[in-house]
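DM from R.C. (forwarded with permission)

"hey, sorry to bug you on a friday — could you get me a structure for this? deadline for the figure draft is monday and I only need the backbone to look sensible"
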Amino acid sequence: MTAPSQPRAFSCRVYGVLREGAKVLLTRSIFRGRTFVNFPGGGVEIGEGPADALRREFLEETGLRVRLTRALYSSEGAHLSTQSPIQIVASYWLVERDGGELRLGGNGDDVVDLFWAAPERLPLEEMFPSDREFAERLPSLLSLKTAS
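My reply, with the result:
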């Protein structure tokens, strides 16, 4: 399916990057019959703050509670959804575990699998353009030091 030429709405998305050792956690999900890879997270609902949305989505998709530690990136491109006439605006946060149990087998809904990958070896060909834009920059973003 090709992207509609004129989006009619925005979809604000927020994703978490959980890094443990030299790898980050990814999801393999299915939406409208298409399987894709991205980071745990999803849509911000009306009346919900992005941080609350990320904590909710991360728990729903992985079984983990997380603490947001640092903003990493926000969309630069005007990404049109390949699934509906919307423009995707996404932000990505570095997160840390704050409890819960990791469900590697998926959540029984849209997430079919969770897996770990090295930031420099992410399956870019399986990602939507908005996530690929971020994923290509992730290795350098993770090497940045936070200000003290």
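R.C.: lifesaver. The chain has a mean pLDDT of 89.
me: no worries. Residues 75 and 90 are 5 Å apart (CA to CA).
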